[in-house]
Task: structure prediction
Amino acid sequence: MTIEAAKAALVPRNVLVTGGSGLIGTAVRRHLSKQGHSVNAIDITDFGRPDPELTIMGFEDTDRLDDLVKAREIDSIVHCGAISGPMLAHNNPMLIVQANIVGTSQLLDLARRHNLHRVVFSSSISVYGNADTEVIDESTTTRPTSVYGSSKVSCETLLEGFSAEYGVDCASLRIARVYGPYRRANCYLANIIRDAKLGRVTEIPCDPDFAYHYIYVNDVAEALVEVLLASRDFGGRVYNVSGGAALTMPEIAAIAQRTVDGAQIRLVPGADEVPDVQREFDISRIAREVGWTPRFSLERGLEAYGQAMARDPASRPA
Result:
């Protein structure tokens, strides 16, 4: 059976989406709903946005989670919740450990106890840290340079353990830098779009040789959902998920100035908040085994992001 035929044969799923009001979770919800699946979103906050379909709930509330799974006949989890980047909770490492590692273990145990179909986990390219190879594939040694990156390695290992010992089918997606509507953390691309609308210059600290790996949020959501719905068993398998092109900030600035009306960018000497050196990502495994490839170039992503920010002020960074 081809990948396309396998997808067509799938039945609708009842999916629990964690981090449902966040950057990735919001896009996953939209993508699943468009395909006719039942979406059950949870998060610890709605960020002040009206969202009647969101349940305010944390991972530690195991009794309510049990009730939710049973009442709505949930059969799968897309885990997008918890601390979402190495720049967040930087001075509170135990919060990262509790939210990421303990929270993920609670969800995996939920899947074990209820015999759920699959858990798909949003991991990060931060697991690689400073990579010592030109091309990073899934066999590249993980050397995280942050507690956040270490927490993602730990979560991936938990997925492998729950799969091996209890038969929980799961997969981890090592996702590159995500940009798009509802991103809360600092994002140079969002700053460029916002400043252009206000007639301001965007100043960006820049090491001209440093490589960035951006991916538009719609591509990430599609990758997560494709893995969720795939007909194969994963058993804790990991996949790189990137936009496909490594770009330096001077290259990014040039693209933005061609794409975003009114963009004015000043590059000044400096380093990125997440200075892990990672040159090129091999994303052929997920293309070969799942059939996913990114659809948004940086140009197309910037256009879509700008349109979303213009439509919905709540989608802009705080």
